[in-house]
Amino acid sequence: PPLIRLEEYRPSDYLIDRVDLDIRLDPHAARIDATLALRPNPAGVAGAPLNLDGDDLRLVSAALDGAPLSPDAYTVSPAGLSLLTPPRQPFSLRLVTEIDPTANTKLMGLYRSNGVYCTQCEADGFRRITYFLDRPDVMAVYTTRIEADRTEAPVLLGNGNRIEAGPVGADRHFAVWHDPHPKPAYLFALVGGRLGKVETQFTTAEGRAVTCAVYVEPGKESRADYALDAVIRSMQWDETAFGRAYDLDVFNVVAVSDFNMGAMENKGLNIFNDKYVLASPETATDGDYAAIEAIIAHEYFHNWSGNRVTCRDWFQLCLKEGLTVFRDQEFSSDMRSRPVHRIAEVRSLRARQFPEDAGPLRHPVRPRAYAEINNFYTATVYDKGAEIVRMLRTLIGAPAFRAGMDRYFADNDGRAATVEDFLAAFTAVTGRDLTDFARWYERPGTPRLSVTGRYDPQAARYTLRLAQSLPGEGGQDGAPLVIPVALGLVGSAGPLEAATSAQVREGVFVLDRSEAEIVFGGVTEEPVPSVLRDFSAPVRLDLALTDAQRMRLLAQDSDPFNRWQAAQDVALRLILKPDAGRMEAFAEALGRFLDGEALADPAFAALVLALPSEGEAADALPADVDPDAIHQARVALRADLGRSLRPRLERIDAALAPVPGAPYSPDAASAGRRALRNAALDLIAAGDPAAGAAWAAERLAGATNMTDRLAALATLALIPGETREAALADFAARYADEPLVLDKWFAIQAQIPEAGTLERITRLQDHPAFTLTNPNRVRALIGSFAFGNPTQFARPDGAGFACVARTVAALDPTNPQVAARLLTAFGSWRRLEKSRSAKAAEMLNGIKAIRGLSRDTADILARTLE
Ligand code: B3K
Ligand code: ZN
To answer: Where is the Peptidase M1 alanyl aminopeptidase Ig-like fold domain (predicted)?
Structure first.
């Protein structure tokens, strides 16, 4: 597919100031009557043809300044409508188009989900509603009249504020919505359907009264309370943390069940995958509650970082996404435990972004070229993008960071901005040149940071040598990155506060050359260096420490992240290179840790007990990955630890047992207690499957919330036998009418690391609740298998790859976005040992042979095979 390149960006030749839409909803023939107020862009080419984007539209009529367009004045193609010689002064274009929302299986543009009309326009779905300059630097003020059948769509929602509503004849009605804030087309939205709601009032710091509502399927209103509460907390938090207040009289969130991703930040009308809205103790886990809180916040925060200040072009995607992820991570850290949240962020970065950065789909945080922009909503743009913002704050300090953010919002409000505009705001408030730092946006790959230490007892001096490496590629130089390295020294009784270095400020050394030495004075005993505290930069750290040194960090370091990391490092080495003696010493150290503080911070302890994943172990190997070997080593380590720690784990289990009759609360402290107790059970079961199965079955029977029930089921799922099958059947019967809960059931089974799983998946594809048309179902069953079952996906016989390849092929014609995303599961295929990688290549080439592949899938495929 042809590439669109950043260096070829040029301003639009025309601008659109106002858009008036009159939309008549109809299941098969929705009619869009659009009047666009256009004018030549002084920054564009005078007299150029006007090329409006269009996709899958039927043009009914076209008029220029009130007069029908003559047929020789314009051309229509599958890609859009061109006006050959547009006026040189402002003009209006009225275009009537017709579309079929029911036939829209791509879930881009206007479509129907369970009978509810909804839209998804980012990145380029608006062109599936009407002909338009569908690019983010064209910003207009929208007025939208929506008309629909009264019974089919009693609720009609649009962007902005509702300014009018009323009946149309006996059966139909209308509503007019006006959004005073100029916005790009990707933020347009409308909803029409039968929906229930919960709502509340919020008064902003500026004194604006805002009605906030969450709309859901009728009957599920009580499951929307938590999301509504998260909206209010997000509004409050953005005012205090960033000085950003809401700017409309209403803020609406709508949950729909067919959605290609998590949610969408349309101005004043966020549309959500219902998975990230609906929650009750009976149907949602602690993890679901946390995800709802984070995504509600994320979409709300986009109101400033994305909507008020939007992106000039899609190459700048990280400008809104990386920044908004950073903002939602800060929010969640404030709502919950900051260190625990930081560990969760890094785990997810390592699980998704590191492999992406190490494989054929790697790209800079700001890509320079794309064939299909929807394939660039990646962990790199989002999560590494957030890490860059975090590093910037570490470099300049929190007060300057806040001043720079204020400056960025002030200077770019109402504009479509670039990464350069973002950095310029921080340069403006600090006087600091950020040119070198900006390389983080340009350089793909995860840098390696190698650190060695040397102690000189005579001089009471400790020297750390740091070196960074990240080979340049594609004609880039390998110039060093600016890496903030938070570090300190830890003695036998805790951090060595007296050891100091002039090169380390507020615990941070800035490595801006290839290598550097830091000298600490006043070091009275041989220390253990604690490097990359709080994961201060997205790098891979090479620091050779002994297990004993790492265990000192676990016991003594002041930085919770590195305490956790130390245990992870020991465990990872034990997975890659099993050793009975070292395992025993590790178990003892973990035992001491658990005795000392597990009950004081259960959420943290649960993370210490969660060993590195199989994926992380694979990622640590240079090549020739054998997922079975990793799996077996990890199972063996968990079994050993489960047996060694058994008495402690049982004590934890008893100490954290819920008070009978106590109501469920999703707060972080309660969730942490559940997490640790369930981790303890899981480890006990790893060491003693027979006892574990019985115990888990009992826990399942007595569970009073979905968190405990699902945790017990997940433990049980790893232990083959009657008990497991009975529990799975029971769970399915109990939640037969709850698609989102059945997704959990699909996912647990798809991840069973056994040869029989493939057959189970084939059976489950015929389950009445499964359908290829719903992205959540596909992700739950096939996605969980492809991304969460390394041994079975990469079966040596290729059958796992084949199953996913078949799904990609089956889905591509109807929903290319979801198909392409699923295909990214093959991203690490070249790192597998030869027989497996050969099978993967075979499957990929099989997909390649299919005629008429979508651009989405063809793009991922081409890059994966490159
Ligand atoms: N901005 C949307 C993602 C749109 C994805 C388009 N393929 C949700 C978000 O990141 O907040
Ligand atoms: Zn976002």
So the answer is: 445-542
